[in-house]
Design a protein that fits this description.
This is Indoleamine 2,3-dioxygenase. InterPro entries: Indolamine_dOase, Trp/Indoleamine_2_3_dOase-like. The chain is about 50% helix and about 5% strand. It is globular. The chain has about 475 residues and is mainly α. The chain starts with 13 loop residues before the first helix and ends in a 5-residue tail after the last helix. α8 (about 165-185) runs antiparallel to α10 (about 205-225), α9 packs antiparallel against α10 (about 205-225) and α10 packs parallel to α16 (about 370-415). The strands form two sheets. Strands 1-2 form a two-stranded antiparallel sheet. The chain has a domain at about 5-190 and about 235-285.
Length: about 475
């Protein structure tokens, strides 16, 4: 690909492009992961934070987490000096906030000031909401046990912090870390290809664009193979009942026990009391991955509002509100600020779909040459591969959420319909797992041919309809003549 066809800021080589992306958008050689493994501890001023996060699984098992957290003093964020320190603070406070909210028989609606006050300030610095986002649970929460520092090797990375202390939870997070690192290798080349394709006055090198798309396709296929390894060390029932409830947010969680969301104390009054605001945030999910959205931007995949139905355009006129943002647009607010700006940057270049579609439209009057046909074919293969990846995600969600919800629903119905054996049952927890099981039981108990229950994801979406629509929209992008 000719250097003069590229933006001067991207440099003349892929390596120069990678350096530019790292400096400008915090996109490293590992993609949206940091270049090196995250910090394992903070300055000594924050020793109490480091101590409690290391004991988190034990404190949750014994039910002592909430009492311990209420004993903490409110620490200042002034001792955080580097971005790596700010990120570790965000991880710790994110895990503590989720553990406090969901770590009892009933969810806690009010965070202690010792968590909420620094969490609000750290979140503002990193341009993220004060909740356990994908960045906190995945991007900045791992160590590399291998000597090569290869984050694509899922067997050589491990979560620093989990709620349960299980290998299942670490493996669940680390599959995504390896996927991110694998996809990151294609970002510089695809960024260069996107900007080259957007040039109007320079003859395009379609063969080079096709090679870049082939590289993207190969990368997505490798990401898919990593996703398929989820079952190796993560049991579906352990995930559904023990891990997933801690990932839930406070948005659309009325059935799980948070009708108003969560109150975040922020300001201390003269009488010592704290005041704050109620917030409803989406929980962490892979939908907050900048990697997947980068694939969409490059390929020109367009998404509408969540659910099966398409959003209707608003009526014309000044008095009508604008159409609501799609879920895919909204979750950009849950990505680190530099990554969010990177997606905006690449979005402004257009997409490879626009170029492929233009060539297909022109082919009615003049035949495409061999390189142009190869580019169009490479584009279609890339969209089909991304659609296949989304199909694999649906299969994972079915295995790890839908089927366990049905099993839990059947158990719930059997218990309700069974005879009283005189033994007092343990208190029923109220969280995303139990509310999902209740919903499934109300929708027929998950029997045979019954329709899939309208389960909620940790991000607050209607789970299966949303994922199916995203997949369908991906395949639709490959229909160039539509």
């Amino acid at each position: 690909m000719s250097p003069h066809a590229l933006s001067p800021s991207l440099g003349k080589t892929v390596d120069e492009t990678a350096a530019y992306l790292s400096t400008k958008f915090a996109v490293t050689s590992n993609g949206f992961l940091p270049k090196e493994a995250p910090l394992k501890e903070l300055p000594s001023y924050y020793a109490s934070w480091d101590a409690i996060i290391r004991r988190l699984p034990q404190l949750l098992r014994t039910g002592a987490l909430r009492e311990k957290a209420r004993e903490f003093e409110v620490l200042s964020t002034d001792e955080l000096k580097t971005e790596a320190q700010w990120r570790r603070a965000y991880v710790i406070l994110g895990f503590l906030a989720q553990a406090y909210v969901w770590g009892g028989c009933q969810p806690a609606e009010v965070l202690p000031a010792a968590i909420s006050v620094p969490f609000l300030r750290v979140s503002a610095h990193l341009e993220l909401p004060p909740v356990l986002t994908y960045a906190a649970s995945n991007l900045w929460n791992f160590t590399c046990t291998g000597s090569t520092g290869d984050f694509t090797n899922v067997d050589a990375v491990q979560s620093m912090h989990t709620f349960t202390g299980t290998e299942d939870e670490s493996w669940f997070f680390m599959i995504s870390v390896a996927m991110e690192a694998q996809a990151g290798r294609a970002i510089p080349a695809m960024t260069r290809a996107l900007e080259a394709a957007a040039k109007q006055k320079t003859p395009r090198d379609y063969a080079a664009l096709a090679r870049a798309l082939d590289e993207l396709t190969a990368s997505i296929e490798k990401v898919g193979r990593l996703l398929e390894r989820m079952h190796e060390r993560c049991d579906p029932d352990v995930f559904y009942h023990r891990i997933r409830p801690f990932l839930a947010g406070s948005k659309n969680m009325e059935a799980a026990g948070l009708p108003r969301g969560v109150l975040y104390p922020e300001h201390q009054q003269d009488d010592g009391k704290w005041t704050g605001a109620w917030h409803q945030w989406r929980g962490g999910s892979n939908g907050q991955s900048s990697m997947i959205q980068f694939f969409d931007v490059v390929l020109g995949v367009e998404h509408t509002n969540e659910g099966n139905s398409r959003a209707s355009p608003p009526p014309e006129g000044e008095n009508h509100p604008a159409a609501p943002r799609s879920y895919h647009d909204e979750v950009r607010d849950y990505m680190p600020g530099p990554h969010r700006r990177f997606l905006v940057h690449v979005s402004q270049q257009g997409s490879l779909r626009a170029l492929a579609q233009k060539l297909q439209q022109q082919s009615g009057t003049s035949s495409l040459d061999e390189e142009q046909r190869r580019f169009c074919d490479a584009y279609v293969r890339a969209t089909e591969t991304l659609g296949t990846l989304r199909n694999k995600h649906i299969q994972i969600v079915t295995r790890y959420i839908v089927l366990p919800a049905k099993r839990a629903a059947r158990a719930m119905l059997e218990k309700t319909n069974g005879e009283d054996d005189g033994v007092q049952a343990a208190p029923q927890r109220q969280n995303l797992a139990t509310s999902s099981a209740m919903k499934s039981s109300q929708d027929g108990g998950g029997g045979g041919a019954a329709e899939e229950p309208e389960l909620r994801g940790t991000g607050g979406t209607t789970l299966i309809p949303f994922l199916k629509q995203s997949r369908d929209e991906t395949f639709e992008a490959g229909y160039l003549r539509a």
